[in-house]
Amino acid sequence: MSEIALAKINSFAHVAQQAEVSPEDPILEIPLSEFQHLLKELATTYNQIAETVRDAGILRGRELARLTEDNSRALKAEKSPTTKFSLLNAYIRQLLTKIREALKRRPEEGGKVIQVCSKIMARAVQIIDYVKTTVQDDPFRRKEIAFDSQQARILFSGKNPEKVSRRDTIRAMRTAEKLWPVMTCDHRPNDGRQTMRLTAKVEDLQDTPIISYCDLWQRSGKSIGLSL
Hints:
It contains 8 helices and 5 strands; from the N terminus they run H-H-H-H-H-E-H-E-H-H-E-E-E. By secondary structure, the chain is mainly alpha-helical.
């Protein structure tokens, strides 16, 4: 990504290099302080667009933070105010391109986008991904799918030695039910242990929710603010 940014940035040159300036062209003179104010306003525009890109999950937070840090270093190293202005415009157009590409890939109307922001939510997404994979691998043989809390705890453990409590497992299952309402979370019938399970008809699982992991990074403390 940074290579793409640099490729665009390097295409900018000083006005004198881009075109021949006629002696008859009018010259605009403004105080340096006013020009610096314009640069700050443009940087604010970049930061607001960057926040939009982050919140929409278009770029992962750490990736966006690294990109912005690189942009800030390039701006601080540049001495020419006009070149700074050109660089800021290039950075803004780069983010707008990312937004345009994301809009082309956006789900059809009615699709549900889920933002992951907690362990419970992440585990609920694991359940959803598992169910989606199970249905895709065997779309015609089974008419109904059932997934109980014991299976969920095995799924959560994976390579992680930490054991997930029954309480947190059930919370994740109920969250999965909210995220994908075609599934029902309830006690297994005629089970004295009152084991919880998720059930659904396979034919109802065709319209799957779309997962966005855009909020996972926010606990890292990374900043996406661009500075001059």
